[in-house]
Amino acid sequence: MIHVDNLSKSFGSKRVLQDVSFTAEPGRVTGFVGPNGAGKSTVLKIIAGLVRPDAGTVSVNGKDFSQALLPGKTMGLFLSAEWLPEQATAAGIIDYVCRTQGLPLSWGRDTLETVGLAGVAQHRVRTFSLGMRQRLGIATATVSRPDVLVMDEPINGLDPDGIAWIRSFLSSAASQGATVLLSSHHMAELAETADDIVMIGGGRILGQGSIGDFVSHPDETGYYLESPDPEILLVAMAQRGFRATRERGGILVHHTNPTELASVALESGAGISHLSRVTRSLEDTYFAVLARSASGGRE
Amino acid sequence: MTMTESQIDDRTTMAPEQRFGAVTRAEARRLLRKGGVPIPVIVAITAAVASGILTMLIMKSLASEPTRVITTTSVETGAFVSALVLSVAAVFAVGRDHTGQLGLALSLTPKRERLFMARALSWAALTAVSTAFVTIVLAGLGLVLSGGDFVGSGLLGVAATVVGSTSMVLVAVALAHLVGRAFGSVLLLIGVNVLLPLAVFAVGAMIPEQAAGAVDALVNVTPTPLFMRAISATTVEDLGLGRLLIGQFGLAVWALVLGGLALTVFRRRNL
Asked: Is B76 helix (H, G, I), strand (E, B) or coil?
């Protein structure tokens, strides 16, 4: 478990975090989202012990990470492909990871095999593409099968095969009880992978909860329909007390179900030529929350 | 990408906790691997042995010094060259931290004191072994050429240069950790080892003669003059061990003080 409690941090006169608190639970993938400059990387660096907060605390499995008996087993970190020494080889880096953690060196070789880098193990990192660096970074974070995984944009530069692998790897790690904190700009990817979401903007937490809270709020689930005679249908719906509005040539209706809609269309004689369910995506919520935050909380 | 058998292996083969020795060995191996400093180490050893042999040949052909003096002088020359190259290599290697090495290292060894000490110790071990190799080769060559009548001086020369060079390189490692960037570290290294004694000497030339003794003393406590004393096995027969021991002690103090400062900075550093 990662517990972040009231973190604040300033760089010079610029305040980058203010009272940031959230928890990433074991057995779940927690998505960490926010625009550039929101403070995501700073939070992740503080969790990793790379940046000291001005105030607040972070605990990883109940302890300060710097006090972990076996750091690699406690938490695997992938913060950026740029954080791999360019002059070193893939084999050298994974060997270093295994030796510092007291792992059998064969685990390192197997992990390189798993991420598809065994064939270029003796090549220097500076000759790698972004995708290969991402794979190597993921290998360094996962080789010791940590209880907690913190990953910043791990799918950047990965091919579809790699994305599918990392998605299944993270879900599998979480299902085996690991805590996964996954920072990403890819909303669709997060919606597929994450169980919980933490949104950050302007150095503050803007929202947090289960993924369900962000993508399918009951108030915002509705249906979009098109009719040969939309005006008649709109009037009929208003008479039946439906919350219906004109939208892109069709009608958007909330708080109903397809059976009721079909019934109204039939009774009014307007008919329906198209009907689809409208759900709010994580991306919609993300932009809505950011917009609300930018307007100081006004709807 | 597919899962392999060892990935679902149990964790009983993992160490129960991270050991300082394991981190130190990992750091030492990193230094010797591709991407570390194997080439500078080879250059240091080659240049040191070559300069030592050259010194030996020049002194043998030009001077009428005893073979003991020729040998210890060549050992000192070799050690000086080796320490110089390794110091520069150390500041460049530590200065490359910002290219990702430090972030990776800290994420694997978050106890910063442990990582810092492991890094210092790995550089100390690397320097000690390299210097021992250089000086044993040079002392051995001298012994072979002279018929082996000064084993004691030769051993003292080896021991003094190994310890002195190690302290000197640790000073460089500490300076590099204080600055964090290769270019700045090199400038600081030059400043402390070359410009500082020259500056003190220049100031001494401008002040009244009565204060000359104090200025001399001040010059003598800067790292480079201390290093020259620390490895001066040649003078032991004439001047005794005191001069050499003072050099060793002074250099160790520099390494400890700068190391302490560097550790303080290292512990507070944000990446």
From this structure: helix
Is 0.90 exceeded by the ipTM? no
Q: What tokens does B101 get? A: 């090495």
DSSP A70: S
Whether this prediction's pTM lies above 0.80 is answered by: yes
Distance from CA of B103 to the nearest CA of A (A): 6
- CA count, 13 A, side-chain hemisphere, B148: 2
The three-state secondary structure class of A77 is: strand
Alpha-carbon span B265 to B260, nearest angstrom: 9
Residues of chain A neighbouring B26 (CB-CB closer than 8 A): 95-96, 99-100
Residues of B in contact with A104 (CB under 8 A): 13
User: Nearest-CA neighbor of B27 among B89, B102, B119?
Assistant: B119
Q: Nearest CA to CA, how far is A282 from chain B (Å)?
A: 28
Between A and B, how many CB-CB pairs are < 8 A? 140
What are the residues whose beta carbons fall under 8 Å from the beta carbon of A78, sequence distance 6 or more?
Answer: A137, A138, A140, A141, A149, A150, A151, A152, A154
* pLDDT, tens digit, 9 for 90 and up, residues A31-68: 999 888 889 999 999 999 999 999 999 999 999 998 89
Give the pairing of strands A148-152 and A75-78.
parallel
Report the alpha-carbon distance of residue B148 to residue B139 in Å, rounded: 10
Which residues have C-beta within 8 Å of that of residue B34, sequence separation ≥ 6? A88, A89, A92, A122, A124
Residue A214's alpha-carbon distances to A203, A223, A224, in angstroms, are 20, 18, 20
Sign for the CA dihedral angle at B37, B42, B48, B54 comes to negative
